[in-house]
Input
Amino acid sequence: MEVEADSWGRVVRRPAASLLACLAVTLAAGCGGGVAGPTCSTGAGAGSCTRVLFLGNSYTYVNDLPSTFAKLSQSSGRPVQTDMVANGAETLAQHAASPDDASKIASQGWSYVVLQEQSDTPAYSRADWYIYPSAQTLVVKAKAVGATSMLFMTWAHKAGEPSAGLPGYESTQQRIDGTYVALSGELHVPVAPVGYTWYHVRQDHPDINLWQDDGSHPTTAGTYLAACVFYAAIFGQSPDGITFHDGLPDDQARILQDEASHGVLDMQTEWGLR
Output
């Protein structure tokens, strides 16, 4: 594991190139760099396939969010193909500078390219200014292949970031939300409000645990919520009633579907979705 300081002086542990080092970063999944997800068949309906490329880090590959989204979509009769480039602690600046990312973006006729910044980075002062150049570079690359970019508004750490002057979860989440909304407006791209919806689930249903024990990575319920938010954001329809529950209790899955529906569809203008 390589250790380095980021632009704010925080220590960041970067995984080495090997799969074993990448596995050490997370609790639940392997390295997501370039791992292929579900694909659309070449038969009837393939022309209506929605192809989504996720560029992120462990928040994307723990529990395999792209595949969870694809299974959710396919169970509702929507053919979906997903793929991802996601390594532990990876930033949008690293994605923007990576030849592998550029090749992956150019490799398919993607409908959407999802952009996820590292963890709580968007909560820091002037984060939109820091993130903007990298995000803009990726938006331009996606547009060149006819894809719509979509920002992945992430959730805050359960304890917030006290060392950065953000003493609790709520204030950290508000800063993250604000940065992604600002970027959405500046770049003229939509945002999937996962973190915003996560906050409301926590307020309305505190019995549903969305964080793993590390207070950072998602449980299966957290990943399922994120998939439901992406479903509503990409298709403009509620995930209510979809039968794929990813092993969650039926009542819990229905709550997460409903929260995602309201979190996205009640505020489509705010998220740049129309």
Notes: The first strand starts at residue 2 and ends at 5. The CA atoms of residues 226 and 247 lie 15 Å apart. Strands lie at 2-5, 11-14, 50-56, 80-86, 112-115, 148-152, 191-192. The chain has one domain: 31-265.
